[in-house]
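Researcher: We're reviewing a set of sequences before deciding which ones to prioritize for further study. For each one, I'd like a predicted 3D structure that I can look through quickly. This is Restriction endonuclease subunit S. If possible, include the structure in token form so it fits the rest of the review sheet.
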Amino acid sequence: MKIDISTWKSFFICGKKGIFKLIQPGVRKSKEYIEEGAVPFVASGAFNNGIEKYVKTDEVLDQGNCITVSAIGGFSFYQEKDFVGRGGAGSAIKILYNENLNEQNALFICAILKKTLSKYDFNSMISGTILKEESIYLPVNKNGIDWNFMETYIKNLEPTVSKYLNQLQSLKLDSYKKLDLKNWKRFNLYDEQLFTIDSGNKLDKSKMATNNPTVNFVGRANQNNGITAVVNEIIGLEPYKKGYLTLALGGEYLGSCFIQPKDFYTSQNVNVLIPNNEISYNTKLFISIMIFKESRTYYKAFVDELNRHIKTDFSILLPVNNNEQIDWEYMENYIKAIKENTLDKLELLNNIQ
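Model: Here's the predicted structure for Restriction endonuclease subunit S, in token form for your review sheet.
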């Protein structure tokens, strides 16, 4: 449903002339050290409403009926219930309050906030100052912001969204057989069968020219293959070749590993995995998933990151054949099977009315 925004007006997000009251949580215990419970722990994540886990805590809670904004990527979510917000420096969340807020109009505004703030990343995280300077366009009536329009718009969408969600669930898209790893072996990424690990360019995106963009710029991100910009090629600095893998060593998106589709540069804290031999795209995809799973299972952002492990003791599980060598054929065929299964499901989705 296309919206006519020609009559909308611009509003500062917060500050003296802003829509919202801004709250920035104080320093809190790390989520790793809080006992599990029933209180949402909200951090700078892109999924699950920003909730990383549920905790038991005696700390003062942040009040619900608000919008939380991730400092990285601008991911914005409505929080209905009281919660523990990740505070302190760096990627702490920002909390926005307005007495007119409810679940429906908040969802409408969250989509606009995400669109506006998605340009901010690890090199330029969202601060309170930035939120006071940024503005968003919203529908208006004779009294100001048209809260009722936003609420009604979302309510009208809900039946359609519910219908499609039910149809998706009926397809059982995630019903893949669980892998048996008991006969797999561990390999370091620097194994001669795998990769040469390069430390990357360590460039600062904010200092890159973009008037003649020809080279992808890969940062610590978990979307769009980690590509956060397209920049000018630097004279004397040859880009890395397409087909290499990039790996985020730390931060909120630790372990994000992607096959790069075009030549590229990298930001700080992003390593490049250069295949020592010819490795198929499907096999690289399989390996990138195993790297991500290993990173998120055994390492922690801002606590124990990959920097000091990647060239020493970091390893991943891979399938092996009867000769105890990496089973390249198994990985190739496994990804092919998933792709074929997914294409079948997409064909079914195209037939949904």
